[in-house]
Every structure is written in structure tokens, then in C-alpha cells.
Amino acid sequence: MLQHTLNTPTAPKRVVVLGGSGFVGARLVARLREQGVETVPVSSQDVDLTSPAAVTTLGGIVRKDDAVVFASCLTPEKGGDLRTFMKNLTMAEHVGAFVETHTCAHVVYIGSDAIFKDDVPLVTEHSEQQPSALY
Predict the structure, then answer these.
(1) Band of residue 76 on the pLDDT scale cut at 50, 70, 90
(2) Whole-number pLDDT of residue 111
(3) 69 near 41, Cβ under 8 Å?
(4) How many Å apart are CA 133 and CA 56, to the nearest integer?
(5) pTM score
(6) Alpha carbon of 120 to those of 23, 69, 110, 124, 130: distances in Å?
(7) Backbone phi and psi for residue 108, each to the nearest 5 degrees, phi listed first
(8) What does the pLDDT read at residue 134?
(9) What would the 3-class secondary structure string for the chain be?
């Protein structure tokens, strides 16, 4: 169950970044380290989030006072079909199962710009939300 325990903004003791070697995750890891935040990048080589075993594996990585950033996904160049879409949902399911059965201090999900058409040259908050693919 989700329970808010902090009433004031508090710097994380450590941040575990799922997707830590990806486009967004690697930049987040670099930025956090620049700010002196202990960071654990987790790539698909470390944990296969599409596997049910990910729940147990994450349990051996994430500490109860860690912030967890979920920035992992299979991007369109890995497939824009239903199978790839379902793998992305499976990753979310396993991270959700982890959060449901383990304690961590904070969870952040970084979503995609995929709610916009692929041919939009510059996405803003005012861009039309009209996805053109399952990604």
C-alpha cells in the first residue's frame, strides 16, 4: 500500500535508477552524481524486468530508504508492435509487484513522449495528444 511518510522535501539517501543505462536514465544518473547523490544504475543486463524473477532480484538491490526511479522501457527501435508493447506493460507489472511487496522510500515513474504523434518536431505541453503507435 502506498503510504506518504515525509511532510517536507528530503534529499534521497540513495537513488536506484531502473533503466540506468538508457537515454534518459544515464543522464539522470550523471546529474544525480554531479549533485553528490549516491546512485545505483540498473540496466537490463543487471535485471530483466520482463521476468517475474525481477521482483526478487530488485529485492536484493533496493534498500528500504532508497528512492527508485523507473525509467526503463523498450523503445520503438526495439519494436513498435503489440509484443513489444506487452513487454513494456510486463516490466511495469513487475516493478509494481516489487513496490507492493517491498519497502522503499520513494518511487518515481518517468513516462514517454509517445502520447504525441511521431512527426511532431517539438513537443510541448500544448502539443496534440494523438499517439501514432503502440509505443
Answers:
(1) confident
(2) 78
(3) no
(4) 32
(5) 0.84
(6) 20, 27, 20, 10, 10
(7) -125, 130
(8) 64
(9) CCCCCCCCCCCCCEEEEECCCCHHHHHHHHHHHHCCCEEEEECCCCCCCCCCCHHHHHHCCCCCCCEEEECCCCCHHHCCCHHHHHHHHHHHHHHHHHHHHCCCCEEEECCCCCCCCCCCCCCCCCCCCCCCCCC
Whole-angstrom Cα distance, residue 98 to residue 14? Answer: 18
Residue type, 30: A
Take residue 76 and report the three cell numbers written for it. Answer: 520503438
Q: pLDDT tens digits, residue range 6-64? A: 778 888 899 999 999 998 999 999 999 999 999 999 999 999 999 999 999 999 999 99
Rounded-to-integer distance, Cα 39 and Cα 37, Å: 6
Give backbone dihedrals phi and psi of 107, rounded to 5 degrees, phi first: -130, 130
Sole residue written with cell 520482463: 50
